[in-house]
Amino acid sequence: MKSKNKLHYFLLYTAILLAIIGIFSPLLPKILIGKHQLSDLALIGDWWGGTSAVFIAFSGIILLILNYLMQKDELDLTRKELKIQRFETVFFNLLNIRQKLIENTVVVDKNSEKNYGYFAIKLLRIELYNSYPYGSTNPNDLNSEILLIKELFRIFTEQKGKYINDFFNNFKSIMKYIDKHIELNDINKQFYFDLLFSQLSTDEILLLFYLGESWGILEFKPFFNKYKVFKDINIHNLIKPEHKGFYSYLSKKSINEYYC
Fold this sequence. Notes:
By secondary structure, the chain is mainly α. Helix content is 66%, strand content 2%.
């Protein structure tokens, strides 16, 4: 954009300069040679008159080019704005679908009671946490923890996948849609990722956190790392605070501190 502005200013100043030269060029012989010699300059005067027209004509051509470039930039900007508007329409429609998927989620607990919506998601997250063998592992052994979480999440999705897979697939589609959209720069993409994760409940975020270190390591984790979506997570909501090591950008968070 800055380079385009520089070109526009260059063309404008060039056109103005040529117009000034064209206007004042017939006066140059009088200024340079003097009044008493003007009778000898008829032929030169005709030449200057022709030259003046050339300068003004070139100035007009440059202004036409400048006008075309500026209109083209405005049209390009309008097209880009329309594409972003279409992107946002689809983006918010996908968010609405995600919301409906959550609202339509029904999980039957061990007491044969039905849990709906966010209560159902919370129940699924609690069941995942309850499957962890507390007290029999070393959370500081990160490689062992990763293998354990992968196995626990595999069993979890085999048993509960019918409740949660649509949510995961919808979420993956939204992330891909943002990341692949060519009209968005990196700052815009980060904004929409932050907006996306701001719509999630704590339980959804925690499920996604562990999904990224299990079967979602190829399709989900690259986005989680690229956009640092868990940067504000409260690590004390994890199964173990030491699991912050699953994502390198969380490694600086101290387990002795609380984060919102």
